[in-house]
Structures are given as C-alpha cells and as structure tokens.
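Let us work through a complete example step by step.
Step 1: write down the sequence.
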Amino acid sequence: QVQLVESGGGLVQSGGSLRLSCAASGGTFSTYTMGWFRQAPGKEREFVGISGWINGRTYYADSVKGRFSISRDNAKNTVYLQMNSLRPEDTAVYYCAADRHQRNIVTTDSREYDYWGQGTQVTVSS
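Step 2: predict the structure and record it as tokens.
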C-alpha cells in the first residue's frame, strides 16, 4: 500500500514563501505522476500542479503559474512544491496525490489519482 506524507505547511505573510514536501513509501515512486491539490474552506478541491512520471514534466494551474514550482527526487521518493509570492487566496489545505497509471496525458482531475496524503495546512496572512 502506498503512503504519502506531506510536510512543510504553516503560517506565512503575503509575499512570502513555503516549500511543501511529500514523501512516498510502499510503491514505485518513479512510475507515478505526482499531483498537488488544495482545498480552501467551503470550496472544492482544486488542481495546483503535477510532476509527470516521464522525466518529471510539470504542469500548473493558471492561478499558480509563475509562482509555484514542483520538483521531485526519485531517489528520495519525494516530491516538492515550492510556493513563492504567496497570497491570502492561496490559503488552503494542500494535498499530494499519486497516479499509478502511467498516463501520457496531463491529469488534473483529482478522481484520477489513486493515493492521497493527509494534507498540510498553508495559511497566508495579509
């Protein structure tokens, strides 16, 4: 069974930065597309970005493009979400997720992901 554990969340001022980590265990990390999603209070879970299983190719939601970046270290079974220029509207619980199906398309639908972490809270104060 694959387990994902996020860390690195916290409280930060607007304009600040945070780096989230997601450590995976129990599976073949290098073959997974790793996605980041977030959910703010009263809102649906939304796609943030992914690191594809092929060469770690990344894709981002328009709302975070140019501010967030995703990287992965397959040797450490870990994916990272670097968040810069944070805004109050980035406040949410952030989740990492793994898609094991080795798709050749960008997967932004949370229903396509097989494994999920417990989430980590990110709060951006104005």
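Step 3: interpret the result. The mean pLDDT is 96.
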